[in-house]
Design a protein that fits this description.
The structure holds two protein chains of two kinds. Chain A is α/β, with parallel strands linked by helices. In chain A, 47% of the residues lie in helices and 13% in strands. In chain A, α11 packs across α12 (230-242). Chain A is globular. In chain B, β5 (210-212) and β6 (217-222) form a beta hairpin. Chain B is elongated, with a radius of gyration of 27 Å. The chains are: A alpha/beta, B alpha/beta. Chain B: Keywords: 4Fe-4S, Electron transport, Iron, Iron-sulfur, Metal-binding, Repeat, Transport.
Chain lengths: 270, 482
Amino acid sequence: MNHSTTPTPSSALTPDPENRPRVALFVTCLVDLFRPSVGFAAVKLIEDAGCEVHVPAAQTCCGQPAYNSGDKTDTREIAEQVIEAFEGFDFIVAPSGSCGAMMKKHYPELFAGDPAWEPRARAFAEKCHELVSFLTDVMMVRDTGAAVSAEVTYHDSCSGLRELGIRDQPRKLLNAVEGITIKEMQDPDVCCGFGGTFCVKYPDISNAIVTKKTGNIEGSEAEMLLAGDLGCLMNMAGKLKRSGSTVEVRHVAEVLAGMTDTPPIAGSGK
Amino acid sequence: MELTSDRFKEHAQKALLDAQLQRALGNVEKGFIGKRQMAADALPEFDAIRDNARDIKNHTLAHLDLYLEAYEKKVTEAGGIVHWAENAEQARAIVLDICRKAGTRTVNKGKSMITEEIGLNDYLAENGVTPVETDLGEYIIQLRGEHPSHIIAPAVHLNKEQVESDFRRVHTHLEAARDLSEPAALLSEARQVLRQKYFEAKVGITGANFLIAETGSSVIVTNEGNGDLTQTLADVHVVVASIEKMVPTLEDTAQILRLLARSATGQDMSCYTTYSTGPRRKGDPDGPKEYHVVLLDNGRSSMLGTEYQEMLRCIRCGACMNHCPVYQSVGGHAYGSVYPGPMGAVLTPSLNGIEKTGQLPNASTFCGRCEAVCPMRIPLPKMMRHWREREFERHLTPTTARYGLKFWAFFAKRPKLYRIAASFGIPALSVLGGTKHRFRSLPFAGGWTRHRDLPAPQGRTFQQQWQQREALKQNPSQERAA
């Protein structure tokens, strides 16, 4: 990247443009395919935090569908591909707690005992972060400077919450967004029923779980639902729209970046 | 009970449509989750005790052979008898033999999942010995000819109206006009009926929450006191316990007991915690004349040294199922196995093989709430994943899922090809999504769209748009051309 032609956002942390952290964005397959605007919101947030963003071309998926289906061989091959493409950067950031946890927590387990790959997976995992916690915990961002007028409710996606400890970080940043009011739903920390391939393997059970969740979302009387994982968001948005809800569904990064001009997930209105 | 875990999906479907069951399942969430949280919050060292308890059990499992032998020695010294049972069949036969020698026609039973595991009730009944369940929940389901749907609340799938009608059906010697509308009346009636049975049986069977190597004691925890009556009023007390109930010392039970009731029911301690060491000694005012322990393996020893060893730390508190969104949706019977919920999804394949039980470890969203609340810090999702790995290795995964996965992985491992395919497919799909930006149905997406709409892609992929943005940065003059 040619620094002289790139506008450099100012940052209190890293005033020297030559020494900005080099962040590789792991877009995630769902954001890449279904909602690129989340990727661009992530790019803006990371750049505003004073980092230089790179998007390695050799990325598809973190391998989680194979991993959770018991296919370790394919998972390893995909994970090796990810590590090779990303390990040269200062940080690897994903707008997803689920993919983040896969890379940070499960890659080292996947390669445990492999003399060549385990150390690489561990070093790689050290540098992996979910987007919002990267902003708050690594780049010490307290305010993203966005203004969005909305009453929102936040769903804690399971992997981010329980594997990476992400709960307060998004709420802190949301509270700093001008015009945002958080209306907590009942049981925000209970699974939405997505579960990756679970939702198509057991559609009726998944439906029972997401029905409880959308009931709680409606019960919060918020006009917008936010979360940090596109899989859960697509599940909840799909159920909300099927049941005729007007609640708008967005990835938390869109609001934090002030980029809410795109139609919400699964569209707006009934 | 007959293992029907291969029909999990079918059972689940039925359970989801069962309005009465769904109402009863609401009580699981209401009754257990908040209480557990309050009890855990009120004990500042709760998490430290969890670490300690995990370490105690890990140590015990690493030296299980030595502790089992030490335990047997202590039981024998105290005048008890240890019977070793490799499998369910042997355990059943040992218990029947004890009953026959005692000359009893009925046996009383404290609540015990291990006797469910070995199918003891049916076996005793077939052989002329009538088992009487004395725990209220167990008594109710025994009247109904059912199996427990929860490991600590066996009748949690029922409501009080169902219990009332069962009592009226069975307790025909009582006045028909009696008022049973209040739960307290049901409890009192059960107590009245059961009280008499305690004096009829010469043998009382209990499980054990712990076996203590240091003293040769067995420990049970109950809330109704039925376990104590079962084991102290009978001439013969038979403890049926699996080998992983072992802990080295009395102090260890004190540690783990601080977790058990809090995790199970949100109580600090259960109402009764009873330690038994051998039969009645000279000068004891009461107690059984004989004390037997049937030590059951039934597949546990083959879990040692495998990736499922940690499952043997389980203390059967039920917290994992109380917090499981799948269990909350379908209840315990849907699992078609003795042990339901997340702990069952790991343990059942270990005990019964993965061939017939593969659905259980698959029926999880991996939300991780079970592991988060497990007092013994058992990594349940990880072990469910290991079962999926065993399935995949042995080609037991359903063919469509397997080919679907392989097809997807083919592209996921070839980023260039993946990008080309995505750059054609995704924008087209986006156009199909129209102005609503979602699909009500889509070929090959029936699993998704049966119950929910599928959000449409926004348009071109992120990678497509990013490449363009980077190209423009390299050569801004292209912008005008474009």
